[in-house]
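Open question from group meeting: does this chain pack into something compact, or does most of it stay loose? Before anyone orders reagents, we agreed to write out a predicted structure and look at it together. Recording both the input and the output here so the notebook holds the full record.
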Amino acid sequence: MAEGSGLADYRRSLTGVSGRPWRLAACKNGAMTDARPAVPDFLYGTAWKEERTAALTELALRMGFRGIDTANQRRHYFEAGVGQGLAAAYQAGVVTRGDLFLQTKFTYQRGQDHRLPYDPAAKLSLQVAQSLASSLEHLGTDYVDSFLLHGPAGYEWTEADAEVWEAMARERDAGRTRLLGVSNVSLLHLEQMAVAHSEVPAFVQNRCFARLGWDRAVRRFCRDRKIIYQGFSLLTANPEALHHPLVAKLAARARATPAQVLFRFAQSVGMLPLTGTSNAEHMKQDLASRDVDMSEEEVRAIEFLAAPAESAD
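Structure tokens returned:
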């Protein structure tokens, strides 16, 4: 990819070597360790797959995905099905646990249905521990690589969020997760979180809308603090971008699909994209988007495709 110095410097600050997986030092028992889980440049999302979850998780691994995103939220995810898919892939020799980046989430009761992974009468700190213990059982592992708070409790960072975050940090320090993050957050959440706590998350995962500048303000916050921004619903939330004449033109020039152009754009501006496709050919195409060649000017054109042309710096 022919990137200008600004984009290239930004990507190198996150990847170390442009185009390769991120590597972040892990904390265990409160100290830095030599275990450095690779963060792949694409995650496979497992929401809303129900009885197909196991088969699609295994298929994604066979197609080449090495990062799996799930949540202990039975309302939208079948986390135990993810574990079944992992087990099948292990048994078939497709991957080993050490090859994978596994990410799950703690979800407040308001985001759950009646199938709770914790005692709703317990303190939030205990709910966090119970949820992660349940996730480890579902996934057949003794640790996950990333553990996210699946959305704050309200429109601001609250005492409940602080209690949950501190409980998550204890799980990290005990070795049951390597990295921590938050999802579905606003810039205000992150600013208040940064004031309230001594450490920022390793990851922020948000739904990303082109018409809102691809979540530019949150991405800027993440860039400035070396937080990896995970973008989801990049296609389904952005039909106007997916079908835009500019994207079609770039896809034709690069002999790529419009979806590949948007995923490559996301990677080029420092995002770690998620895809949840159930189509094997689309899985291969999504992973191949890393090879789509785009100039800095083309990346900037997509950046401002449906949003006011303010500075991206």
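Observations to bring back to the group:
The radius of gyration is 19 Å.
The longest strand covers residues 177-183.
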